[in-house]
């Protein structure tokens, strides 16, 4: 595909489309941050097991896999801004649908619609902000973009802690936020970029195996983020935390993501081979799961642990993407990014299922053991590849 962007020589930051893109991504962050724990707690109060809750949450990953290839055709057909407005509306309606759906099976199509909408929103907002920012300011603008997304993730659990899971109020708050976020997208619709097909295609699946340290990193992150966010409130409840305290611990994970991404990103720019840093992040992730049970009796120690753990684990996504960019360029990088999104979706499918089954089989300790399994497997993969590099 080709993209119609701003004219060459235009070095201005187009702030209206920036606000439009950033507001839409904030909806993604808040919806996931509030929706994941909210929906899990509602299902548990209705008597569903952790594995069934994990199964329903895992559908989000399948929906993301299905939604990723839809973003470009929809944007070509309806335009970037109008597609985003449509996805905001579809996601809001699906979210409210959970409140009115009495039967468990109804939650599966609603989850599919919600996460297809969120996936398309995420892709198009990132595309919009990349094409609207001049090259010399792109780092600044994307830094703001990433920070707002992380703040959205942190704000979701904070809202959940104050709103609770009963009644329509948490769903109503989402509707208000989504409506507000759609206003700048509408205002900037005439400045949204257009996408034109150029007939080129590529088998992006082969890039999963071409740069496995990057694609496996995002798979692990997708599994840990989705499964951990969805089932941590249940884990917290089973080890004695109140609903509000468990939600605030989720907020600490989000804050770690907000505050640690820039320093870790600066470190990654100074490392010759980012796989060593990815290995270090996975090691910290594994260590955090090991120490969780020992820190669980002290909320403040647990909060400090999760702050560091959340920020370092989230860096696996950004460092993995940077590693991908250092290995490939041009059309190959575009195809590899598609594989990157696919692996994130696969992680979203595997994580909730593995953690839910682990908790049903081994009790609360199954939460940490299941997370540790993902980190351990990744450490083995990267370790083998680094050893091969040294030997060869």
From TrEMBL:
- Which topology term describes how it sits in the membrane? Multi-pass membrane protein
**Could you state a single Gene Ontology molecular function term?**
transmembrane transporter activity
Subcellular location per UniProt equals: Cell membrane
Task: State the source organism's domain of life.
Answer: Bacteria
In which broad location class does this protein mainly occur, judging by the first location in its UniProt entry? membrane
Keywords (A to Z) from UniProt: Cell membrane, Membrane, Transmembrane, Transmembrane helix, Transport
One GO cellular component term: plasma membrane
SUPFAM superfamilies (alphabetical): MFS general substrate transporter (SSF103473)
This one is known as Uncharacterized protein
**Organism (species):** Rhizobium loti
Give the taxonomic lineage as stored in the record: Bacteria, Pseudomonadati, Pseudomonadota, Alphaproteobacteria, Hyphomicrobiales
């Amino acid at each position: 595909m080709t993209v119609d962007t701003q004219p060459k020589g235009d070095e201005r930051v187009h702030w209206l489309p920036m606000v439009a893109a950033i507001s839409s991504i904030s909806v993604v962050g808040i919806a996931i941050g509030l929706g994941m724990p909210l929906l899990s707690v509602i299902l548990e109060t209705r008597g569903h097991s952790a594995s069934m809750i994990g199964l329903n949450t895992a559908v989000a990953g399948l929906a993301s896999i299905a939604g990723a290839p839809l973003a470009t055709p929809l944007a070509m057909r309806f335009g970037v801004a109008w597609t985003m407005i449509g996805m905001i509306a579809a996601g809001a309606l699906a979210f409210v649908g959970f409140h009115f759906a009495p039967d468990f099976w109804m939650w599966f199509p609603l989850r599919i619609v919600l996460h297809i909408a969120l996936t398309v929103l995420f892709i198009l907002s990132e595309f919009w902000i990349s094409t609207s920012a001049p090259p010399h300011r792109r780092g600044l603008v994307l830094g703001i973009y990433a920070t707002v997304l992380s703040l959205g993730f942190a704000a979701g659990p904070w809202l959940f802690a104050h709103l609770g899971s009963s009644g329509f109020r948490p769903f109503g708050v989402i509707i208000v936020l989504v409506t507000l976020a759609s206003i700048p997208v509408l205002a900037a619709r005439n400045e949204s970029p257009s996408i034109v097909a150029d007939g080129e295609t590529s088998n992006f699946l082969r890039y999963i195996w071409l740069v496995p340290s990057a694609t496996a990193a995002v798979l692990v992150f997708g599994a840990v983020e989705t499964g951990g966010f969805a089932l941590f409130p249940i884990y917290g409840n089973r080890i004695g935390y109140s609903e509000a305290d468990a939600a605030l611990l989720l907020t600490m994970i989000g804050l770690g993501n907000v505050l640690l991404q820039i320093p870790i990103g600066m470190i990654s720019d100074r490392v010759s081979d980012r796989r060593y840093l990815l290995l270090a992040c996975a090691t910290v992730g594994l260590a955090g799961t090991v120490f969780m049970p020992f820190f669980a009796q002290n909320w403040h120690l647990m909060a400090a642990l999760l702050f560091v753990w959340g920020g370092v684990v989230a860096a696996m996504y950004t460092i993995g993407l940077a590693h991908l960019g250092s290995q490939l360029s041009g059309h190959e990088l575009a195809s590899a990014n598609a594989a990157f999104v696919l692996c994130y979706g696969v992680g979203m499918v595997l994580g909730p299922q593995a953690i839910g089954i682990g908790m049903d089989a081994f009790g609360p300790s199954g939460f940490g053991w299941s997370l540790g399994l993902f980190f351990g497997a990744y450490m083995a993969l990267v370790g083998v590849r680094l050893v091969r590099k040294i030997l060869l």
